[in-house]
Amino acid sequence: MRGFLLAALLFGVSAYLTSPAIAASSDEHRVQRPDLFDPETGLRIARQRAPTPDDVPGAQRSSASGVRGLMDAGAVLLDVGAALQSRYDELDGTWLVRDDHMSLPGAVWLPETGRGTLSPEKRHYLSSHLARLTAGDRGRDIVVFCIADCWMSWNAAQRISALGYRNVHWFREGIDGWLDAGWELEAATPVPVTVD
Asked: Do the beta carbons of residue 134 and residue 142 sit within 8 Å?
């Protein structure tokens, strides 16, 4: 009986320590499941809804209260969440969205820009709108988010940092964390894919 209890305890500790939710860094996630990451960029390419690491290369992690302070100081709030049950019209670039998308007040919604791989068109969509939103100021604070347990904001924060933006903040808990803090959301409209 004692041997059984010891084995059960060791199994439980082992399962706890190898749980994706416990893995503290993105490197540990890539080692555990290399098939989920692009080998060249290190971005997550599959199973976007899963526990995320505690940190992100090239960005600072922010809490809900930290985001509130950044918002008050004029940061760009960038929602990179998926456009569920939606698509964009390739002729005019507008998004055809079925359901309301609720986001942080004043956030700009650039759907799908947090995917692990982007077409040249979507890369241009992200970079051109960032340039417009920041008026070309690469030192401007940018808060990147989607929802909790979503790798899309983790990917986008790195992508934005790689574009030369120096003050990228990752709001890991995203829309869910904002609601948990007791703050209101507002309906967001996706920015068209085409750039004026």
From this structure: yes
Model's pTM, two decimal places? 0.80
- Output the CA–CA distances (angstroms, integers) from residue 196 to 77, 82, 118, 133, 193, in the order listed: 21, 23, 20, 13, 10
| Length of the chain, in residues | 196
The model's pLDDT over 43-78, given as tens digits with 9 standing for 90+, comes to 999 999 999 999 999 999 999 999 999 999 999 999
The DSSP line for 146-171 is -BTTBTHHHHHHHHHHHTT-SEEEE-
From residue 94, give the alpha-carbon distance in Å to each of 27, 169, 191: 37, 28, 7
Rounded average pLDDT per 10-residue block, the chain, 196 residues: 38 35 53 86 92 95 98 97 67 68 95 92 94 97 97 97 98 97 94 71
Closest Cα to residue 160, out of 84, 39, 49, 79?
79
Helix (H) and strand (E) counts in the chain: 6, 9
Residues ≥6 apart with Cβ < 8 Å to 43: 37, 116, 117, 155, 158, 159
| Token reading at 152 | 């899309």
